[in-house]
């Protein structure tokens, strides 16, 4: 009979103890898999939503002057000419290394106009790109195709225009196709028209005032992308909207730290359960171990038998714990993401990691009981007979 046969035979004879150890490791591994899978799925879901929530890179013309505005409040008294960027220069963005991470590029031309006696800032934009750059817009009406305009809520109030009204500008009749509900941003005071139409009305054909870029990047290589865009647009000042980038990374890091902390705590509790159970098992088997030693089994044989038992139980707990955690995550994820398309992919790395972690916890927690069993004096053990 080999040591492996002895270990398996012991597990069969002590099913309750074996099941208790298995339950401890199973619970720990299952909880860790649920937490890590849940956090990973939530990270992907949150990252996807944040990526779809507006621009994170801004392209403006280089200037030596600073604007005296803060939070939409202009302190006035300073006006300066700013050079526009050539619209065709934005095509160079398609040639940067991370061009695949660019979800949308929204060029914008800005200029003051007079509507119904009121001075309003006109913004010519690409409405198709702005569907991704301004997903929070709620337009009462519709965005224009080639001609027409949509008004910010404050611009509509001041000008007295609403959806369906028309106004004249440079002998051109323009229809208001929609009004944007209040956003709380500077968009409320603007009138938006298609980019070619605004360029024609403002006499700035082929030029833009600025551009916004929405970058899809799970790893968020925003600094690298800023540098790449700066290299292809030497006449522009390219900057990351830091509050968006930092906020995104901070949110994801908090989730990750939380999962690691809870996982470590659960594993510690599971290890203590295994340690206490194995020590109790060794004390119950004092006579059996004494007989083994009297038959000529060495201390190393006793240690290997105990650790073999722990390894078999831990391996089974690791496999069962991973699949239980995986299916539990699939059931739980809709409650944490409000059912918005979050998926829990099968991760071979996590599966192997869970199995190895279970083996490690089982063997580590069983080392002291195994050493304790090996140190038993066979004479003292046999006196209990």
Structure description:
By secondary structure, this protein is α+β, with helices and mostly antiparallel strands. It is built from eleven helices and 14 strands. Strands 1, 5, 6, 7, 8, 9, 10, 11, 13 and 14 form a ten-stranded mixed sheet that branches. The protein has a two-stranded antiparallel ribbon with strand order 2-3. Strands 4-12 form a two-stranded antiparallel ribbon. A hairpin with a 2-residue loop joins strand 9 and strand 10. Helix 2 runs parallel beside helix 9. The longest helix is centred in the last third of the chain and has 43 residues. It starts with a helix and ends with a helix.
What attributes does this structure have?
alpha+beta, two-stranded antiparallel ribbon, 53% helix, 14 strands, 385 residues
Relative helix content: 40-55%
Low-confidence stretches: 75-80
Radius of gyration from CA coordinates? 34 Å
Largest sheet, strands/sense/barrel = 10 strands, mixed
Total strands: 14
What proportion of the residues form beta strands (DSSP E)?
Answer: 15-25%
Overall structural class, as computed from helix and strand content, comes to alpha+beta
Write the topology of this structure.
Elements: H1 3-13, H2 15-51, E1 57-61, E2 69-70, E3 73-74, E4 85-86, E5 102-115, E6 118-125, H3 127-133, E7 139-141, E8 149-151, H4 153-159, E9 166-169, E10 172-180, E11 190-194, H5 195-202, E12 207-208, E13 210-215, H6 222-232, E14 236-240, H7 242-284, H8 286-294, H9 299-337, H10 348-374, H11 378-382
Parallel strand pairs: 6-11, 8-10
Antiparallel strand pairs: 1-13, 1-14, 2-3, 4-12, 5-6, 5-13, 7-10, 8-11, 9-10
Helix pairs in contact: 1-9, 2-7, 2-9, 2-10, 7-10, 9-10
């Amino acid at each position: 009979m080999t040591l492996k046969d002895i270990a398996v035979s012991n597990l069969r004879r002590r099913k309750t103890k074996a099941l208790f150890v298995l339950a401890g490791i199973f619970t720990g591994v299952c909880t860790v898999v649920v937490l890590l899978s849940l956090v990973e799925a939530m990270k992907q879901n949150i990252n996807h939503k944040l990526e779809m929530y507006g621009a994170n890179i801004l392209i403006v013309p280089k200037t030596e002057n600073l604007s005296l505005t803060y939070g939409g409040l202009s302190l006035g008294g300073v006006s300066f000419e700013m050079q526009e960027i050539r619209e065709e220069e934005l095509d160079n963005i398609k040639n940067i290394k991370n061009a695949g991470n660019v979800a949308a590029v929204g060029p914008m031309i800005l200029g003051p106009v007079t509507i119904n006696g009121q001075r309003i800032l006109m913004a010519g934009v690409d409405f198709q790109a702005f569907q991704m750059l301004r997903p929070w817009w709620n337009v009462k009406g519709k965005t224009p195709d080639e001609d027409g305009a949509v008004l910010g809520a404050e611009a509509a109030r001041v000008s007295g225009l609403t959806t369906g009204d028309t106004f004249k500008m440079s002998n051109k009749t323009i229809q208001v196709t929609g009004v944007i509900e209040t956003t709380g941003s500077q968009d409320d005071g603007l009138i938006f028209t298609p980019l070619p139409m605004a360029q024609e009305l403002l006499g700035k054909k082929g030029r833009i005032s600025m551009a916004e870029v929405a970058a899809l990047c799970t790893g968020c290589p925003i600094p690298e992308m800023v540098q790449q865009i700066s290299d292809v647009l030497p006449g522009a000042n390219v900057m990351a909207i830091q509050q968006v980038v930092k906020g995104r990374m901070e949110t994801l890091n908090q989730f990750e730290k939380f999962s690691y902390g809870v996982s470590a705590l659960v594993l510690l509790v599971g290890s203590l359960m295994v340690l206490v159970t194995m020590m109790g098992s060794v004390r119950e088997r004092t006579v059996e171990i004494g007989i083994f030693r009297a038959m000529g089994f060495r201390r190393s044989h006793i240690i290997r038998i105990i650790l073999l038992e722990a390894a078999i139980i831990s391996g089974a707990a690791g496999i069962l714990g991973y699949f239980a955690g995986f299916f539990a995550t699939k059931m739980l994820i809709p409650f944490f993401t409000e059912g918005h398309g979050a998926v829990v992919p099968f991760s071979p790395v996590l599966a192997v990691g869970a199995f190895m972690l279970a083996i490690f916890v089982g063997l580590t927690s069983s080392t002291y009981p195994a050493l304790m069993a090996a140190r038993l004096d066979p004479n003292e053990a046999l006196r209990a007979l």
